[in-house]
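User: Structure please.
Assistant: Input sequence and predicted structure:
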Amino acid sequence: MRKSPGQSINHGASPRQGHEQGREQGRESTRQRLLEAAGMVFAEHGYDRATGKEICERAGANPAAINYHFGGKDKLYAAALHEAHRRFLTAEDLRAALPPGTPPAERVGIIIRDLLSNLLTTDPSAWQLKLMTQEMMRPTPFLDELVRAEIVPKSMFLRGAVAELLGQPDSHPAVQLSCMNIISMCLTQYLNREIFRRVFPGLALSADGLELLTAHTLSFVTGGLRQVAATLPGAALPQENQ
């Protein structure tokens, strides 16, 4: 076949294959628009008051799109929660930041820095943080699956490091309480930062102050873990002069 000037011959896909690829890309585009719009609407109104009509209007999709792509409002909300948590931090991010052989105390520091960095440098108006905060404050029936699929796997990186430092299995109450307190410290700096900014106006509770916040939080956590370790046999936490 002779090609006319400016025309290229597609030797890869047949017209039928090209059509199917186009349809698939269109479906994925609609799905992503729905997910983005749903995240914003759920974050603004909560699960109960959000409507499929508003979500579809924002996404520029027809009213049947939620059922077609997600199987209903419930599953769309669950998908938005999972997307919010993955945008904040993924297990792959943590695994890449914690290569094998990294000492446990260093792993704890890296995790704290990543948590604070993501919490304090993300735009506060971003729907993913607003939605996660809302779910923490007013849990829905969808929280259990989010915890199982997203939160527990990521928490195991911190639990493993703390367990190694304390010389205990990750199921030990001292390990679990320590992890709970570490995560709570980081979350509190985000959830209460507008209050803290007014109480302590000299502190930079943003990307500008990230290094100081990380160093101080890690120092505080290490001191606490050292005290916990003193009550337990076999702890591997470094001594003060190390």
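The CA atoms of residues 66 and 72 lie 6 Å apart.
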